[in-house]
Design a protein that fits this description.
heterodimer; A: about 90 residues; mainly beta; Folate-binding fold; four-stranded antiparallel sheet; two-stranded antiparallel sheet; about 40% strand; globular; B: about 950 residues; alpha+beta; FAD/NAD(P)-binding domain; Arc Repressor Mutant, subunit A; Gyrase A, domain 2; seven-stranded mixed sheet; six-stranded mixed sheet; 52 strands; about 25% helix; elongated
Chain lengths: ~90, ~950
């Protein structure tokens, strides 16, 4: 059981969290100007790195989304930060 | 001859006698005994039959590493299978049975299999039983092989507590190294959690004894435990740390005997692993005969339980540690001779027992047990052969945590190497053998201040010389006792190319038994190294995985059993529904009334559902809709957030009005539906499906935090705050007016799809005119605390109006009559809004919303998509089975064009109705389709989904 650091609640067991998606993805819009390829990339293409990964997670207990940096091989946690504009 | 109890000594209570049976034979033992020590004291030699060949087997070890003595233990009518006799305390009244033996271990009927052993090498079953199919042979082979019998009636209660704990220092193992570490940390004031898998602390001190810091070991251990407790720490006896998981989590199985076992999940700052070492056997022909035992195990039986393994013992060794066993047995009156592979050693030099230098056993005489040992061309009479092949550090937990190991040539063993954050290994587990070395290593591992505790005597030399299996020797030499793997099987694997250690393991099953090869892996590796001309480090080790010992599933399950497994949400009004004879079923995680019927008769349900549906159409139905979602979206940007997240725009909604909406995923698929009411300019309440509330809330939160200014819009799930009672039917208004006379004026003005906020008695009341049945309906929401009162008030008038309480099944029938969908039932993971006939928002909206781009994709615009339609069966035909597929084409060209999603018998229409998702459905209304269900052909005519009152005239009737 991994320990994830919620920026608002501190370290908590991983079962209290849900994965939200890859961090830093920007939703392409307006729809009329977005190519099918760009939209498919947004929906389905994941970098899925072997190594350090930046991901959006939500802490279900407090409901806050945040960015988690972790190593996908060693499971080392490298840091967590509140969403831009949010203060922990 | 065989084991016997010494007249005195041992940590047992001789003043009391415990009765038990073994394979039906009545025997006795003492408190403090294990099942194993009691069997040995009673002279029982054959305690089990082996897994594959049904060979007679005796006790081989005294602790967790025991490969042979698996027993089924019955107590108070409950049988637990495959317990290690060495780890089970003796309790009054146990019925112990050997596994894999019938009628008993001594006279097993299937012992003949052993004579055919040369036809049963590794891989035999896979190679032989291939034609016509393994599944034909498997049941009989499984019945012959295998271990304990599972009692189908044995359902361990779900009472095991699961305890989360944290500490500064976790110490695994309360032997000398672990105790020294715990003592050092406690001296600094650290909170220590000290675990040991034995019921008593001390580890090897319990049979090796010693003096530490000038005190007898008993006193030093006691003093150490007191210091741990004084610093706020704790010692847990009979607790096995069985695995290390991510981020240093240590899981432990604690046994308490009479009270339920416990699972401990421990988060230490630092862990010290002091799990000791496991003695290795020697490999020689027939080394599995009863009477062959690990040398230190014999010493442990002698000192802890005062049991000797025999009257004449041969001790065979390649190192000096077995000499202490030899000396202790001789002192107890056992005739001892020693076989030693070495020609000289410090222990040999001072030993006054007969030593055969440069010799190891070449074979064993006796089938049901050792009668003599062959060595140097002679037969040495003996009833016990005690072997020591050196020691293997227990690096299991270290490996679980990802720690590396290196091969230490001087020990011929793998020892921890490198570092793992927050983890240290100490004592014999770290390759530091001997009391002084263990104490020093434990003290250092815990970064102890000052000098480490000192024993009175310096450590004797280990003086070890490797003695590995010799593939050139004659006869059958056992490597893995529990899985019946011999040296020949390893040789066969090497010959057939299974040389990687992982292949060796899987091909021969070496190390794959419940003991996970604790006594066999090293011999197997060494044999493979020899056979394949490589060194042991080149062969490497297999992966160590948790658990270290078999752990009962009951502790992993804990209390998550029965109604706690996946707890259902319960209604405030559940007692009222029960009093009204509700039959409860689960709907979307809620336990809700399915129908109301006095009888449990199988026909009572459908009859009640039909009567309820009829009453709701003819008069009024009263329905508990409390689980309906009530997610409030509040703030100046509330409309903006909802517009973006929903398919239908709600910013254009006037205050007090309600709109039906869909929520899509970014792929455009319908995720949920519901209604949004605007309570104020800056306040909405979204009534989503009851089963989707948490997910809908999370989606709203995600976009709120990721796209909008969270200070300007807030999402609040008020579902559990409100009870919602719905009256539906032509007499719904009359019922509500009589029940709530104060609300009558508001009701008079309330149009369909509007909402009024008012008050009832002392609580707020929301009245919404929304209909899931097609009839005039009032949803009355009050705080849960007033639900009982309101329900009673409405029920009081129900009968007078010819109405009934209606359950979920009647409601689902009513909505299907109108063609209203349940998302997730009448839609699937491909259903887009246009498939439900809702193209409007996509055409009209030019602002962004979730899923918009996906709805523009060519695939979303195809005209052959599966669309929602009604299905009508021919006159007199029964309802269609839900899930039946509509098909087109014949033979290999036959394919599905969709399926039935909902099907009911409609009381209002007097015939079956069904909804389905059918390819090009809307363009084909009136066409007949063929359906298939479990091989049977059916037919139906496609029609519009609304079967009942398609014009919607009844909504204001």
């Amino acid at each position: 059981m991994q320990l994830f650091p919620c920026p608002f609640c501190g370290p908590r067991p991983e079962t209290e969290f849900h994965y939200g998606g890859e961090a830093g993805k920007v939703r392409p819009e307006p729809a009329e100007a977005v190519s099918e390829t760009a939209w498919a990339d947004y929906l389905h293409a994941q970098a899925n790195p072997k190594g350090v990964s930046r991901e959006v997670w939500v802490h279900l207990a407090c409901g806050e989304f945040f960015v988690l940096s972790r190593h996908t091989v060693t499971h080392e946690i490298l840091g967590a930060e509140a969403m831009p504009g949010r203060e922990a | 001859m065989s084991g016997w109890r010494l007249p005195e000594g041992g940590a047992i209570d001789r003043s009391r006698r415990l009765s038990f049976t073994f394979d039906g034979r009545p025997l006795t033992g003492h408190p403090g005994d294990t099942i194993a020590s009691a069997l040995l004291a009673n002279g029982v030699r054959i305690v089990a039959r082996s897994f594959k060949y049904h060979r007679p087997r005796g006790l081989f070890a005294a602790g967790v590493e025991e490969p042979n003595a698996l027993v089924d233990v019955t107590r108070d009518g409950r049988t637990a299978p495959n317990l290690r006799a060495t780890c089970e305390p003796l309790v009054e009244g146990l019925a112990v049975a050997a596994v894999n033996a019938a009628p008993d271990a001594g006279g097993d009927r299937q012992a003949w299999i052993d004579r055919f052993s040369r036809f049963l090498p590794a891989g035999f079953y896979y190679k032989t039983f291939m034609w016509p199919g393994w599944e034909l042979f498997e049941p009989r082979i499984r019945a012959m092989a295998g271990l304990g019998r599972l009692d189908p009636d044995h359902r361990p209660p779900g009472t095991a507590p699961q305890i989360d704990a944290a500490c500064d220092l976790l110490v695994v193992g309360a032997g000398p190294a672990g105790l020294a570490a715990a003592r050092a940390a406690a001296a600094r004031g650290e909170r220590v959690l000290l675990l040991d898998d034995q019921p008593e602390p001390g580890g090897s001190l319990r049979w090796l004894g010693g003096t530490i810091g000038g005190a007898d070991w008993h006193d030093w251990v006691q003093d150490t435990l007191e210091r741990v407790a004084a610093a706020g720490g704790r010692y847990l006896a009979w607790t096995t740390a069985y695995g290390i998981y991510d981020h240093g989590l240590v899981c432990a199985w604690r046994r308490l005997g009479e009270a339920p076992d416990q699972l401990w999940r421990i988060r230490p700052q630092v862990s010290v692993l002091a799990a000791g070492a496991i003695e290795r056997p020697l490999t020689f022909p027939d080394n599995d005969r009863p009477g062959v035992m690990l040398a230190e195990a014999a010493l442990r039986y002698l000192r802890v339980w005062a049991v000797a393994p025999g009257r004449r013992a041969v001790v065979a060794t390649n190192n000096d540690t077995a000499y202490r066993t030899a000396a202790a047995l001789a002192e107890a009156g056992v005739a001892v001779e020693i076989l030693d592979i070495r020609s000289d050693s410090p222990a040999m030099a001072t030993c006054d027992l007969p030593v055969h230098r440069g010799r190891l056993p070449e074979g064993v005489v006796g089938r049901g047990g050792v009668t003599a040992v062959r060595a140097g061309g002679r037969e040495l009479a003996a009833d016990a052969l005690l072997v020591s092949g050196g020691w293997t550090p227990s690096v299991h937990l270290w490996r679980h945590a990802g720690g590396r190991v290196r091969f230490a040539e001087e020990l011929a063993a793998f020892v921890p190497d490198g570092a793992v954050n927050g983890l240290r290994v100490a004592g014999a587990a770290n390759g530091r053998f001997g009391l002084a070395a263990a104490l020093a290593d434990g003290h250092t591992a815990a970064a102890g201040a000052g000098p480490a505790p000192q024993p009175e005597l310096p450590d004797p030399a280990y003086a070890f010389e490797p003695a590995w299996p010799r593939p050139d020797a004659e006869g059958r030499q056992w490597i893995d006792l529990q899985n019946d793997v011999t040296l020949k099987d390893v040789a066969l694997a090497a010959r057939e190319g299974f040389r990687s250690v992982e292949h060796l393991k899987r091909y021969t099953t070496l190390g794959m038994a419940t003991d996970q090869g604790k006594t066999s892996n090293m011999a197997g590796l060494a044999a493979m190294a020899e056979l394949s001309g490589r060194s042991i480090p080149e062969v490497g080790t297999t992966t160590f995985r948790p658990p270290f010992v078999p752990v009962p599933l009951s502790i992993l399950g804990g209390r998550r059993r029965g109604q706690f497994f996946n707890p259902l949400r319960r209604l405030q009004l559940e007692p009222e529904h029960r009093a009204a004879d509700a039959a409860f079923r689960e709907y979307g995680g809620w336990l809700r009334p399915a129908w109301y019927a006095r009888s449990d008769d199988p026909g009572a349900g459908p009859t009640a559902v039909a009567a309820e549906a009829r009453a709701a159409r003819q008069a009024v139905g009263l329905f508990d809709g409390s689980p309906l979602g009530k997610i409030e979206v509040i703030g100046p940007d509330a409309a903006k957030l909802l517009d973006f997240v929903l398919y239908n725009r709600v910013s254009t909604l006037e205050v007090g009005r309600i709109r039906y909406v869909l929520m899509l995923s970014e792929s455009g698929v319908v995720f949920d539906d519901g209604v949004v009411a605007r309570l104020a300019e800056d306040r909405f309440v979204f009534s989503c499906s009851s089963g989707h509330v948490p997910a809908v809330r999370l989606r709203l939160e995600e976009w709120r935090q990721d796209r909008f200014d969270p200070a300007r819009v807030f999402v609040h799930d008020a579902t559990s705050h409100w009870a919602t009672l719905t009256a539906t039917g032509p007499r719904a208004r009359a019922l509500v007016e009589v029940a709530l006379p104060q609300a009558a004026p508001a009701l008079a003005e309330l149009a369909h799809m509007t909402l009024a906020e008012s008050a009832w008695e002392d609580v707020p009341l929301r009245i919404a005119r929304v209909s899931f049945t097609g009839d005039r309906s009032y949803e009355l929401s009050v705080p849960q605390s007033a639900a009982g009162r309101l329900w009673a008030r409405l029920c009081a008038g129900l009968e007078g109006h010819g109405g009934r309480r209606i359950g979920l099944e009647a409601l689902l029938t009513l909505r299907a009559e109108k063609g209203f969908v349940v998302v997730g039932k009448d839609t699937d993971g491909l259903t887009l809004p246009q498939d439900l006939g809702m193209e409007g928002p996509l055409r009209k909206r030019n602002d962004e919303f979730v899923g918009r781009r996906s709805l523009m994709l060519p695939d979303a615009q195809r005209d052959d998509r599966r669309q929602l339609v009604g299905l009508q069966v021919p006159d007199g035909a029964p309802p269609l089975p839900t899930g039946a597929h509509a098909v087109t084409g014949q033979g290999p060209q036959r394919r599905s064009i969709g399926y039935v999603t909902s099907s009911y018998d409609s009381p209002a229409l007097g015939r079956p109705i069904a909804l389905g998702l059918i390819e090009r459905g809307r363009a084909r209304l009136g066409e007949r389709v063929r359906l298939l269900h479990l091989g049977a052909g059916l037919e139906a005519t496609l029609c519009a989904p609304a079967f009942f009152d398609p014009q919607g005239a009844r909504i204001d009737a």
